[in-house]
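Write out a sequence, fold above all:
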Amino acid sequence: MRPEDLLCPSPKGLYSPAGDFYVDPTRAVPRAVITHGHSDHARAGHAHVLATRETLDIMALRMGPGFAGATQALPYGEEIIINGVKVSLHPAGHVLGSAQVRLEKDGLVIVVSGDYKDAADPTCAPFEPIRCHVFVSEATFGLPVFRHPPAAGEVDKLLASVRIFPERTHIVGAYSLGKAQRMMALIRRAGHDAPIYVHGALTNITDYYESCGMDFGEILPVKGAPKSAFAGAVVIAPPSSMTDLWARRFADPITCFASGWMRVRARARQRGVELPLVVSDHADWDGLCASIRATGCEELWVTHGAEDALVHWAHTRQLRARPLHMVGYGEEDEEAVVPAPEGEAPAP
């Protein structure tokens, strides 16, 4: 069997001709396998969706319970056969419930990584390298300049600033699914036990993480709290809210943003970020290269990001590689899926 018979790019996303299903399709399709709940991978309107239980729950929270005609939860490591194709899901280390999709037929194995990271994260299962013939990798940070420091050190920078400026509010911009909860967990691990205040757009997802057994300590809504409570406090909010009317309730705030893009100083300046925090839920250059090597793949397909650099790297390692030039993946558009609570600014 040729790899293209098992998986190939199409206008609607990655399609399995042998199995007659799509992985993270960009348009509504009869059958979809979804890697995780971010809006550039998980969309409403499919007739049937297969994903981890956590991803299905998150999709329902973000899009409403009728986001698909039918759903099926598949635990990590369990196998299902779809039209003769063996399909299983394996941890991607990106956000809660995120999965790599392993496809096998006639001895050929292809793994679609979705978004992934190999760095430790207390809020999701760690990335699991899966042996395969073809590995489909993202390349969000697929340039050698992107080498992320340990996230714990970035949180130490945040808390050092809190100690230096105890009268100021530190507003941390973080995406509502995954990054916000990871920051909460890291802040607690660093010994900060004061209440953490959150924008209303983060509440539902954070509550779901807690229902899965995670303890973030005292998490309080910004709405309804007295202004005096915010002196010296850490507030976590969707990134766009930091420059919105919503942020004007805080006295002399210090704007922070937790993102791998904060490695690029020009991006921090463009966003008006005073304290950039290089915390990413995507693998950096070293993580991408190490993860690809760990799969033992003979061929690499790159779906989005800095495709050419990673393809060139693969060629220097005698791997067959090609960019897929997929359209529709990248930074998730949270505004499309996270309704703003009454009286609060919409999420970015």
In short: The mean pLDDT is 93. Residues 151-277 form a domain with the Rossmann fold fold (CATH 3.40.50).
